[in-house]
Amino acid sequence: MSTPATRALRVALHGDTILTHPRFNKGTAFPAHERKAFGLTGRLPFRVNTLEEQCRRAYDQLSTRDTPLRKNTFLQSLKDQNWTLYYGLISRHLKELIPIIYTPTQADAIANYSHLFRRSEGMFLSFPNQDNMEEDFLEQTRGRDIQLFVCSDAEAILGIGDQGVGGIGITVAKSAIYTLLGGIDPSKAVSVTLDVGTDNEDLLNDDLYVGWPNGRVRGKAYDKFIDKLRRAFLQPLVRKYHPHSLLHFEDFGVNNAKRLLDYYRDQHAVFNDDVQGTGAVTLSALMSAVGVTKSRLLDQRILVYGAGTAGLGITKQLRDAIVQIDNVSEAEANKRFWLHDRYGLVKQSLGINKIRDALQEFVRPDDEWEGVPTNEKGEIGLFETVRKIKPTVLIGCSTQGGAFTEKIIREMARGVDRPIIFPLSNPSRLAEVNPKDANDWTDGKALMASGSPFPPCKHPHGGKDYIVAECNNALIYPGLGYGAMITQARSLSDSMIIAGARRLASLSPALKDPDSALLPDFADARMVNTEIAIAVAEQAIDEGLADIPWKRDEVRDHVMGGMWEPVYPELVYDKDGLH
Ligand SMILES: NC(=O)c1ccc[n+]([C@@H]2O[C@H](COP(=O)([O-])OP(=O)(O)OC[C@H]3O[C@@H](n4cnc5c(N)ncnc54)[C@H](O)[C@@H]3O)[C@@H](O)[C@H]2O)c1
Ligand SMILES: O=C(O)C[C@H](O)C(=O)O
Ligand SMILES: [Mn+2]
């Protein structure tokens, strides 16, 4: 592989068709000889700009947009016009602009998708068109070298639930992050939304809704659709034409996320970001926190609030790490976890009807809770659990903004010297606690990480501000995915994920200074994901999962050399070239 800067691209487009093609368009940066070759001399103003100058102009234009959502819309238009400029601009202002194109602002863009709609991007596989699925797929992929498919059915977008066809917005945002932080060539990624209807009444009652206006298909009909997808898409097409691609699942509902992952795992390199990406980044943050408290993972009492896709993914990832790192049995490691869901503590007497199968290994025995007050339904609330078990770690992935109240946080801080508190729900308004409040209520002792970005916290007694780490799967999934792709790994194994998480933890500022952030800053996220990709690729080779002719000591060169960068490639007109 080579970067665009080192290889001329042969392109068959001419005149307006190249100016309106976001992959090849350079706008005012077309040099004179390319303007001539592509029929652009009279179509562009005289002066040739550098990418740097274009970025300055675009940044000025962006700055006149006065709300995050307007900035998001502006950037989406820029992406529709010119990929290099879009990625070049965001790369130059990574920390400022990631929250605009990703969480939290992208949540608003998704919720308003049908009203903001200008131009479609990605692949729409709609339930009523399922008989044409194969053709719809081939239309966009024929002859292309695809490395990445990001796929969602939009049932559980971030914490904002069922967003119907607007779910395409999370897949394109996740793809853009792969490009920005993982160096994936955007022309080799495809975002796919499965439009199986929606149960979101606001969307169904909106006559401008652009998706299939129908209730969400569930049960057998959904399974049949997925099965068709599998037969039309995965087996003959993806495996035949794109055997080394990574299939990334995002924001499926809790009943489908894990099922799809397990189903495909042995057949292809698949990855569920909400289960595995979230588990991995949270493991890194926790490894870093236990470094600060000078304890082991095994010493923790971990309370996970919200036992859905992310909650269970995190729990299992932490459990597996305890088994691997602290060398205990799974049953022993399971005892370090207490899970909560909408029916309170996950305990035996709730009965199997309430507790989904996947949670069974973490159910707490009843005799542990004798004498603990319950509500009229016999459920144990979060405050009671905190008082009883004195958790060292409290993780929120419940979508319940503000659920970690002052009373709960103060109670936690009474039981432990340095409470580890991770409100991970997105977008920002759904965080279980605002880190500023948790900082005040714990007298500056809390070690924190959040799912969306929050400003640093003032120390109650003066001194250095506390930087709240952003514990978002975007800090790790691009590296996990890219490490798998570059080694053409047959699967993305648990050990590859743990290798990535350990590398991320090793880059944490808190390792050097315990008062610093638990995870690296998003401004460094590209370097961080490069390192993660290297660790993952090395592990793939060690495990014999890689399908490449090169050796372990060449990993760094291949990883760095294969990363796409927002730089204009030289373009040459060729009537048989790309179009
Ligand atoms: N930081 C990250 O990287 C990251 C990654 C994935 C998900 N998330 C966030 O985590 C949240 C959950 O995502 P998910 O995909 O797991 O969704 P999900 O719907 O699968 O899980 C949410 C769970 O919370 C439970 N819940 C609802 N109300 C509750 C209450 N009052 N008390 C306790 N539990 C309650 C639900 O029953 C469900 O099991 C979302 O806000 C999402 O944005 C963050
Ligand atoms: O998309 C994000 O910001 C993280 C995560 O995948 C989520 O669903 O919240
Ligand atoms: Mn997600």
From TrEMBL:
NCBIfam families: PRK13529.1. (S)-malate binds at N426, N472. The keyword Kinase does not apply. Signal peptide: none annotated. Pfam families: malic, Malic_M. SMART domains: malic, Malic_M. GO terms for molecular function: malate dehydrogenase (decarboxylating) (NAD+) activity; metal ion binding; NAD binding. Residues 275-541 form the Malic enzyme NAD-binding domain. Divalent metal cations. Prefers magnesium or manganese. Keywords: Metal-binding, NAD, Oxidoreductase. Residues 79-265 form the Malic enzyme N-terminal domain. Belongs to the malic enzymes family. GO terms for biological process: malate metabolic process. Its cofactor is Mg(2+); Mn(2+). A divalent metal cation binds at E250, D251, D274. This is Malic enzyme. Gene3D superfamilies: Malic enzyme, N-terminal domain, NAD(P)-binding Rossmann-like Domain. GO terms for cellular component: cytosol; mitochondrion. InterPro entries: Aminoacid_DH-like_N_sf (IPR046346), Malic_enzyme_CS (IPR015884), Malic_N_dom (IPR012301), Malic_N_dom_sf (IPR037062), Malic_NAD-bd (IPR012302), Malic_OxRdtase (IPR001891), NAD(P)-bd_dom_sf (IPR036291). It comes from Fibroporia radiculosa. The active site is at Y102 (proton donor), K174 (proton acceptor).
